Amino acid sequence: MRGGPRLDEQRRREMADAYLSGAGRYDRVRPGYPDVVADWVVPEGARRAADLGAGTGIFTALLAARGLGVTAVDPSEDMLAVLSTRLPSVPAVRGTAEHSHLPDASVDLLTLAQAWHWCDHPATVREAARVLTPGGRLALLWNQLDVTLPWVHRLSRIMHAGDVFSPAYRPAFGPSFGPPEEILVRWSQELTVPGIVDLARSRSYYRRASSAGRARVEANLLWYLTDYLAFPAEAVVRIPYYTHAWRAALLPA
Q: Which of 49, 140, 218, 223 could form a disulfide with 109 if both were Cys (CB 3.0 to 4.6 A apart)?
């Protein structure tokens, strides 16, 4: 479990609650996922999937595009409203990774994209074992700014964006699942300078900060981008990311 976030239960829930609103901005500026990762996550022959912590459907859409019958699960009505506009044919259920309200043995694939760090991990794994079909797959994935580049590392610190996992992290799937496999894909997102500011505004730290704290983040970010890095005010910036994904199959009972 090296390299994971160090959040106690109360802090984890408080930060996750920041995403119960603000879905429109989140959907506009949050990065998507490389197609190669979605292809790797989906098992051969899978027909039914559920995306836990689906948010506005950024990853859900990739599952639907691969011909899966997908159910989206999220605790936020605001997020699910945006998802239903994006994906009107996808059923949306209010629930959590620990209590999804999905039927027993109902899906062949269960995904958590950018949601694992908000979960109670043992409870989520138990829920996954309940709702997956025999041999079904649990997949975890998340995007990270590529902070091996010094300028991106400083950008992440200004945005308070270092809140997920390092490449050294190994999630615990528990005894109900077989040996996990992983893939790491490097890619980039293009955002304007105002879009990067909006990206910072979409993060839990900013959403929970005081008005003075928010103003400080925005001022520091604009100084860094337009003064220190000398990007024009409306420049399009290529932001390096990597997506780290894990998958494991449910073992026979």
A: 49
Please name the amino acid found at residue 182: E
CA distance 36 to 131: 26
Q: Which region, left, alpha or beta, applies to residue 6 given φ > 0 means left and ψ of -120 to 50 means alpha?
A: beta
Q: What is the mean pLDDT of the chain?
A: 90
Please determine, for residue 7, whether its predicted confidence score (pLDDT) is greater than 60.
no
Buried b / exposed e along 79-103 (16+ C-beta atoms within 10 A): bbebbbebbeebebeebbbeebebe
Spatial separation of the C-alpha atoms in residues 92 and 101, rounded to whole Å: 11
pLDDT tens digits, one per residue of 107-145: 999 999 999 988 999 999 999 999 999 999 999 999 999
